[in-house]
Amino acid sequence: MNKKTIYKTLIEQVEYEVDLPEELVKKLAYKRICTIKYNKIKFNATGFVIYKDIIIIIFPKSYKLEDDNRINIQEHIQVLFQTLLKYKNEANVDTWEMDLLGGARGEYQGSLFIAYRLIQDFVNNGLLIKEIKNKTLSFSGNIDWGTTIAKRQPLFSGNSVIYTEIISRKTTVDSQNQLIKLQKYCVYMSIEKFGWLFGFDKDNHILDVNDLNIDVSNAINFLTMELNSTYVEREVIVINLIRDFLVGVDQKQNEERIETLVTPYFQNVWELICSKNFNSQYSELKQIVPKLKWEIKSKAVTQSQRPDIIILKERVMYIYDAKYYNVDLNLPGWQDVVKQLFYAHTIFSNIKSPHFKIQDKNLEKKLKKIERVENIFLFPSGDKSPIKYIGKVNIENNDDFNDIKAYKVNTFYAMKCYIGKELFNYNYQIRN
């Protein structure tokens, strides 16, 4: 990690003493990322805020960090970063949230995203290759027969033609090419500031940039000319990244910008995480969810039922609801509980109805064999166990509905599974 960079790790919806620059706090409050009350600050979003050399990392509700283990904390930070990038690319977010997440794909305005893509390209592909083509009288390299025949006199021996002076064609890599120098500089500076965030240390690769003094304005002009003279796809991508990086450096000399990768809707991230990790079959099973039947003259569009996650497991159907609650401080209320109970009741009644029919007859047979529907709440947690049963809820003095079981799911481990760093069978852990 760059020693000049200060980073703070916080938890969403937890109050802290204000120890941040006043101008930063005002800008964050204006963007609705945080609220201030009695010199206490509380963040209403999860993710990353970058301002000058300060990086603020806000973890989700109920999160736990081991403050005495720096390497462990950096892994948590890297996993959160990759989770938000994946969410940003997969979810259907509105304009305001996309702006808080750093802008639309291809329109990144912050150095964080440019740095990430520069490092990612460098790790996957290495430096760009610029070649110098030389023609020489030495016998090394490939013989350039066209030039040799055109410029050298042959000797004739019987039916043979002999060239005593052969011109060879030799290609070498131009390591001093200005474009490669600029790429090395931008990758080095990206690693210097953000490499630790992406799990990449500058010591992993030798990038000597000590001899490179950058005139940003001239470099940007040079890159613009390079763009007009190349049609190689990767070169075009990398040149644009280098130029955007240098433009960002130039702008930062004139203004103090806040860079963000945050979402105020981590409940949507939590739903995506749980949907993937529990292998939701909603896209296949959504046809079994009954629709509202209005008997009224109106062209209004009615909202349909939309359970988060539906799973078929032998003769049981599971309906999961990913709830973004800190259950130690707050619990779902009447609306959440009744809605979940109603999902189970109406879906089970629908598939058991003599009028129930779907096009997929094999699926229809499976559904007819369902004996019961289980309701489950999934809460984020800092507990060490990947998933843990913690209790249940029902409506008092009412035997018409089954209980809704409640589980805590370790957020860190769930995010690692979501981004593909771990594999775990969550459904196997659910009580029958």
Automatic annotation (TrEMBL):
Name it.
Answer: LlaJI family restriction endonuclease
Protein's organism = Lederbergia graminis
Task: Kindly give the Pfam families that the UniProt entry links to this protein.
Answer: RE_LlaJI (PF09563)
Which GO terms of the molecular function aspect are on file?
A: endonuclease activity; hydrolase activity
According to the lineage, what is the superkingdom? Bacteria
Q: Which UniProt keywords apply?
A: Endonuclease, Hydrolase, Nuclease
Q: What is its EC number?
A: 3.1.21.-
Q: Which InterPro entries match?
A: Restrct_endonuc_II_LlaJI (IPR018579)
